[in-house]
What we know:
The chain contains seven helices and no strands. The protein has a single domain (1-190), classed as Up-down Bundle (Rhopdopsin 7-helix transmembrane proteins). It is globular and about 60 Å long. By secondary structure, it is mainly α. It has helices at 2-39, 47-66, 68-76, 84-117, 125-152, 173-177, 179-194. Helix content is 77%, strand content 0%. Helix 1 (2-39) packs antiparallel against helix 2 (47-66), helix 1 runs antiparallel to helix 3 (68-76) and helix 4 (84-117) packs parallel to helix 7 (179-194).
Amino acid sequence: METFVDNKFVLHRTKFFILISLQIPAIIISLLIFVFFINHRTTLNALQNQALLLLLIVGFVELTADLPMPIRYYYLGYVTPATPGYCNWWTFFEYSIHLISELLMATISIQRHALIFSANLFRSRLNLYVLYYAPLAICVTYPFIFYIFIILISPCDGTQWDYTSNLCGYANCYLLYNRFLGMYDWAANNGSPAI
Length: 195
């Protein structure tokens, strides 16, 4: 048992140092890209650059607000504060920000294809809003709304959380007690953007 604890400690410390060593340069590079966009505002006239800037902003939020939570877990070896409210918040934020990234990547890929092969499709203002800006807005708002309902407004009492595991053991109520929502989340939210 003691060897298992030592191995787990070494693994957590290794993950901690890897994440820290990659997070710091990623934040610096993100800031440099933002400075580039500030200094070269005309680059935002191109539609594809607007979508990429949105994806960079989401990635920056993930780097600065989401990644510190698992880094703290790997440093300490347990979740702190060890409360159901924190675990609900952590899983809500983690799932939302990852789904936003996935949906934006899929949507931007499709839009980029349309921009290359059917650029005249976006010439009308109505098409621009319906086919370009509305999908990007949906990519950002849908995950928050979906996970508010299935994670934050959940019937569980909070005893399902494992404070010795990363992300509180991934023990959301809908994953444990509602197979339909779990399958929907997996298929629609994680599978379809990849496809």
